[in-house]
Predict the structure.
Amino acid sequence: MKTTALLLLLLAGMASARANDFPTVDRVLYVQECMRSNPGPYYEMVNKCACALDRLAAEVKYDDYVEMTTVVNAMTIGGERGGALRDNDTLKPEIKRYRELQSKVQKACFINPK
């Protein structure tokens, strides 16, 4: 019985560690950007945006999040350089995954996107 309880605690700790591999500064930046994109009462939006980040971090590892956001942000580059990314079919699944994740976590945390 004790071994089973210890194993469950260890597994819970491993899941928790995975969800918390986002550096603090990136957590803060995510919440700030979320609040800018979704204006509302300050404390309400702090909690909703923190909820969204926690749910996102539970879904993807930090390194995967960095790759997805880099691609999505780079797509806003104008001109030829941005076009090379926008027209790249190999990046489209990653962009789709990021947008789906954002929609999922926003819905779960009661954030109404524009």
Residues 2-108 form one domain. Residues 3 and 19 are 24 Å apart (CA to CA). The helical segments are 2-19, 24-37, 42-59, 62-74, 79-86, 92-108.
